[in-house]
Amino acid sequence: MAKKTGVVKGFKGFNQDLKCRGFQYEIGGEYETKDKPVKCTERGFHMCEEPLDVFSFYPPTNSRYCEVEGSGDVARDNCDSKIAVQKIKIGAEIGIQALIRAAVDIRFKRVKWSKQASATGVRGAASATGYQGAASATGIRGAASATGYQGAASATGYQGAASATGYQGAASATGYQGAASATGDEGATSATGIRGAASATGIRGAASATGDEGAASATGYQGAASATGYQGAASVKGKHSIACGLGIESKAKGKLTDWLVLAEWHCIDGEWQIKNVKTASVDGECIKENTWYTLKDGEFVEVSD
Predict the structure, then answer these.
(1) How does 133-156 read in b/e, with b if 16+ C-beta sit within 10 Å?
(2) What is the per-residue pLDDT across 89-122, written as a single tens digit (0 to 9) for each?
(3) Alpha-helical regions (H) of 52-118
(4) Domain that holds residue 64
(5) Are 60 and 176 members of one domain?
(6) ∠ CA 35-36-42 to the nearest 5 degrees?
(7) Measured between alpha carbons, how far is 257 from 233 in angstroms, rounded to an integer?
(8) Which of 94, 121, 144 is the last residue of a domain?
(9) Residues 189, 72: one domain?
(10) Which of 63, 167, 266, 275 falls between 20 and 30 A from 92, CA-CA?
(11) What distances in angstroms separate CA 6 from CA 9, 86, 199, one per listed residue?
């Protein structure tokens, strides 16, 4: 049953045209439905209160995300944090890294802190700040954050989020819709599982997403992004970086001076086998920058977002 409420903050996913279920949105736009009562999956504008729940509806391989505010009548879903609202305001567009940071922040606000940097169980959170700190959160919606020199963060389980900030930080999120972010020189991040997202920002950062519809992004000089799994996407932004799409129907993109590595698969007698593997430099002519490519019949072919 829909209930009146104040302003509810959350997150919303869209396709690349900023459409959701065929409805066209705009950044900064405000919308109101006349269909009452609002009901999840049926009537009203939809959003998620948990940042990583947006991956269930718009996977990180080919989607856009915004911060949003809902108001008026609100109806909640019994399965996750998805809600339907009477009114919605589309805020700033945010990327994978911002979603991860928001997921970590939300977890931390819900827990009672102890001296230990390990949290196990439902909605646990772990934080380690300082030189060579380590943080581990295991369980549903766990979050781990390690800030400082050589920090490491690990979140294992459904919708785990791991963030490591600083020189040589490492972040790992394992499980369904896990997200990992490493910010700083030589940071490494790994997201394993369906719709996992990995983001590495800084010099020589490495991002790896393993699993179906995973997304890996490396931003900075000499970064590397690898997406392994069905319909994975790898992207790099920065000079002399490498984007690898090595799974079935995977894709990759980069900027000038970057390199793309793509694998092509075919099914023989019910078994998937590698057909071709090819590399190419993003030269702006044969291979355009900021353009997704997949490998088809041994050739690089442009594909849509």
Answers:
(1) bbbbbbbebbbbbbbbebbbbbbb
(2) 999 999 877 887 787 777 666 655 444 455 555 5
(3) 96-109
(4) 3-94
(5) no
(6) 70
(7) 19
(8) 94
(9) no
(10) 167
(11) 10, 11, 34
